[in-house]
Amino acid sequence: MTQTLNAPTMRDRGPRPRKARLGGPSMFRMLLRDKFASVGAVVLGLVVLVAIFGPALMGELATKQNLMFMNKAPFDPANGWAYVLGSDSLGRSVLARLVVATRTTLMVAIPAVLVALLIGSLWGVWAGYHRGRRENISMRIADIIMSFPSLLLAVVVLYVFSPSIANIVLILAVTRIPIYMRTARAESAELQSRTFVDAARTFGTKPNSIIAMHVIPVVTPTLLTLATLEFCYVMLAESSLSFLGIGIQPPDVSWGLMVAQGRQYLQTAWWLSILPGLAIVITAIAANLLAAWLRIATDPAQRWRLTLERPAKKALKTAAKEAK
Question: Which residues on adjacent β-strands are paired with residue 93?
Fold first, then answer.
């Protein structure tokens, strides 16, 4: 009876903390708390939407020539909305060409990153878990590939073969596989001394099952962050190859090709190279900002940094409570 009377009621206990009920803030809420990462995510989202829906809406304007509108300056309302970013030497809309070039650039960067991520990660995790001769052979192959500058190797291969989109994706993916392989191998080798891996091995779990259930989930956040950074490199590499004339070929168009085609008009029509160059820079910065946030958000030891309220916001809440 005494225990019943002294037991705290639900009203005495009060409501459970919000974080205790929900298990901490979600990834979306943590993203909203980082303004720079939120801006980066919005920019990348807009780039993807433009690449998906833009060519269907403005594809005809990108190829339509109008010699009456040759090298029209941008931001002139008299030229109409289609020429708000000016026109090129053939009277084509720069805005429409930027929209179409967005899809081409992403069609090269995203598949190259995904192929390199899939092959390099699985190969590196497998080599790091088994160690021994398998690891040595894998690392020597990675060293051989990395001994050649990736951009120079791409130039040589594309000079020998036709510079199509498939060949560009293939050579850029091959040159970036060692990056993922070495990272995944180091992470997988470090996990060999962890207790949960030793316990799974002691209970007779097969190596492939241990890799799939225990190693890959731990390594994935680091590899995804690396893939976000590699997206910037691959996009810049494609732009460099197109600028050199061995990347995307006309009638296709990419941001790098637009920069290359407009460099001879820099003194008379600067927007032909500056605007696609700005598109490359803004997209790369947005991807880097999102990668920096993703590295902290997926790390349990650093995630608390994104869950803290800012001092100014916390002070306003405290002042409002005191005023009430």
Answer: 87
Cα(249)–Cα(38) distance, rounded to whole angstroms?
35
More confident residue, 150 or 186: 186
CB atoms within 10 A of CB 76: 11
Q: Mind listing the pLDDT tens digit for each residue in 282-307?
A: 998 998 888 888 888 877 666 666 66
Query: Residue 150 pLDDT > 50, yes or no?
Result: yes
Eight-state DSSP code of residue 214: I
What's the whole-model pTM score? Answer: 0.78
pLDDT digits (tens, 9 = 90+) for 202-228: 888 888 888 888 888 888 888 888 898
- The yes-or-no verdict on residue 144 having pLDDT over 80 is yes
| Of the candidates 132, 111, 134, 110, the residue with the CA atom closest to the CA atom of residue 122 | 134
- Rounded Cα distance between 134 and 139, Å, is 9
Long-range contacts of 248-251 (CB under 8 A, 24+ apart): 248/104, 248/108, 248/163, 248/165, 248/168, 249/163, 249/164, 251/63
Give CA–CA dist 173/179, Å, rounded.
Answer: 10
180 and 226 Cβ atoms separated by less than 8 Å: yes
Lookup: tokens for 137: 């052979």
Local confidence band at 20 (pLDDT 50, 70, 90 cut-offs): very low
CA dihedral 103, 109, 113, 116 (to 10 degrees): 120
- Asked if 154 contacts 241 with a C-beta cutoff of 8 angstroms, the reply is yes
CA–CA gap between residue 21 and residue 44 (Å, rounded):
32
**Cα(115)–Cα(110) distance, integer angstroms:** 9
